[in-house]
Structure formats: C-alpha cells, structure tokens
Amino acid sequence: MRKKIVIGNWKMNKTVSESIRMVTELKNLLSGKQDAEIVVVPPFVSLHPCEIALHESSIMLGAQNVSAFDHGAYTGEVSAAMLLDVQCEYVLVGHSERREIFDESNQTLNQKLKQVLEYEMRPVLCIGESALTRKATKTFDFLQTQLQECLRGFVEDDLDALVIAYEPIWAIGTGDTAEPGQIQEVHQFIRDYLEKQYSKAMANMTPILYGGSVNQGNADVIMKQKDVDGVLVGGASLDAEHFVSIVQHAQ
Ligand code: 13P
Measured between alpha carbons, how far is 65 from 41 in angstroms, rounded to an integer? Predict the structure, then answer.
C-alpha cells in the first residue's frame, strides 16, 4: 500500500524566526508515531534553521524550487547539492506559480528533475490545467503533454523516487476546490498514463497528490479517493493547528 504524504508548501511566507517557531510547534503537536509522511516546505533561507529545529522529529523537509544547473556561475540559484546538504528529502518541481510567474518550461523542469533525482531526493512534479483549458475540455491533453515533456528521457528505473502532484491552477488559493470526482478522474488518468508509458508496477508505486484549496474541512473526502495518495497544502499549512488536523485525516 502506498503511504499517504502530506506536504505543506509555505510559498513566500514566514521569516526565519517564524519558521523556527512553526516547526517547533509542529514537532510538539506531531510527536507520536505518524502513519503518513509529513513534509514542510519553507523558503530557502529557513531550510537550515528548520533542519536544526526538526532534529529527531519524523517531520521531513522539502524545498520549493531547485536550480536546473549543477553548480557554478548562476547568481541567485540554489543547487540540488545544497538542498541535500540541509537534509531536504523532497523538492517541488514545476509548481504552477514557477511556471506562470517565472516562465519555467517543461524543458527546464526536465533538467530540474534530473538534478533532484541525481542527488537522490524525491521530486514532486506539479502539473495542472488552467480554468480556460478545462473549459475547452483540453485538460487531459494538456496534462499528458506536461508529463511527456517533463519526463522525457527518463526510464522507469530513474523514476523510483518520483511523486506527482495534480494542482489545477483554478483551485490554487481560490477556495474553489475541485470536486472529489474530478480529482479522482484526473488521478486515475495519471496512473493509467504511468502504466502505459512505463509499467503497472510503476503506476502502483508512484504517489499522486492533490493540491488546490485543501483545508481541514475537505482533506478527508479528498484523501478517501482511490488514487489520491496525499495532499499538497498551501494556505492551510501556514497555521500549525490547521495543518495538523489535515495530517490527522491522512492517518
Ligand atoms: P492553496 O492550498 O493555498 O490553494 O495552495 C495550493 C498550492 O499551491 C500548494 O502547492
């Protein structure tokens, strides 16, 4: 059985001192044994302080982004090696905000995936359609192109650590969550795609998460969908009690 994964993407929120306070609170609230994998994803500058604050906790660390390059003269970039060094186990790749605001293409994301996999962290490849694409009934074509282009050149053995997150753009930060039926339909489509392109084993093994206005009220029904292996939470992950109550639904 696939273990549930709950990831809190803090986006560009919380200073270093706020981040330390937050993970300390989470560490206290989630001190017992957890069935789900719990991952917090603070801004880059808070990663090392959070690593220290989370010492001896089962809560894991993730990064919001990574450079497509290995090292060198790339001012402002943060490499996969640097993330690994501060004990990051997960890295978000291709969040829709990175794609839209910072113009990240599927080709760039393919390079980023290579970096994360090479340094043996788990990439969380984010895909998702806009409201316009959904309205034009082009959702599945669009998602298939994202998967094809981002995963180009990888063989099944390269992708053991892959996590996929379905985040419809129209549901992010809007309070407008996708219907459980819509979510299951897309997750099933992604799993079928993995089976077609790679194998049944790979389709069964790869966690597929949902993100987009997840909160303590809807997490339970979303995570009960057959092909939903967890959630990627934005806004509701900024409050320790809200995040913990979402984690409890994953148990
Ligand atoms: P919200 O939960 O705030 O809609 O954000 C979702 C998201 O983008 C997580 O990566």
Answer: 10
Model confidence over 154-210: pLDDT tens digits? 999 999 999 999 999 999 999 888 899 999 999 999 999 999 999 999 999 999 999
Could you tell me the CATH number of the domain that includes residue 151?
A: 3.20.20.70
Radius of gyration of the chain (CA): 17
Name the residue of 5, 6, 7, 9 whose CB sits within 8 Å of the most ligand 1 atoms, as the mutation to test its pocket. Answer: 9
Provide the number of structural domains found in the chain: 1
pLDDT, one tens digit per residue, over 106-136 is: 999 999 999 999 999 999 999 999 999 999 9
What range does the domain containing 159 cover? Answer: 5-250
Catalytic one among 97, 104, 129, 167? 167
Say what angle helices 240-249 and 16-29 make with each other, to 10 degrees: 40
* Residues contacting ligand 1 via CB (< 6 Å): 9, 95, 167, 172-173, 211-214, 232-236
Mark whether 167 is an active-site residue: yes
